[in-house]
Design a protein that fits this description.
Layout (H helix, E strand, L loop, with lengths): L5 E5 L4 H13 L5 E5 L14 H6 L2 E3 L5 E3 L1 H10 L3 H6 L5 H19 L22
């Protein structure tokens, strides 16, 4: 058995992301989640076979077998790891799953702006740029 259920790649420079991760750290009493800050010095997205921009555009996670997941599936895995598997299962119901996917996509496109991190017009398109601080 692996020593973790899911490794989440998150943007530690994102205030909203940092709050979510802090809550998950508190809930992760069994230590089933690995937390990797993609904004940390020395983090190299290439080791995951992903670009920095791809990791910034959507939240990503790695499962013990090396499979990468992103978007809402990451949150399902994270919340299942901290004991909310029945609630996470409800998010797979027809209609609910599609709604959450669309809502997450809309959020991810606006995350930087919603987090109050737009600088020098960097959020004009709603997409993060290399000149901004890293985000997940």
């Amino acid at each position: 058995m692996a020593d973790f259920d899911v490794e989440v790649f998150y943007d530690g420079a994102c205030p909203m992301c940092a709050r979510e991760i802090a809550m998950l750290r508190r809930l992760d009493r069994r230590g089933r989640i690995r937390f990797t800050d993609i904004a940390a010095p020395g983090f190299d997205a290439a080791t995951l076979g992903k670009s920095h921009d791809a990791l910034m555009a959507r939240i990503h996670a790695r499962l013990p077998d090396g499979t990468m997941v992103d978007g809402v599936e990451v949150f399902r895995r994270l919340y299942a790891a901290v004991g909310f598997a029945p609630v996470a299962a409800l998010t797979r119901l027809p209609g609910v799953a599609q709604f959450l996917d669309v809502a997450y996509d809309a959020f991810a496109k606006r995350r930087v702006r919603l987090g109050g991190r737009c600088e020098a017009g960097a959020c004009a398109s709603g997409v993060s740029t290399q000149t901004e601080a890293p985000r997940a």
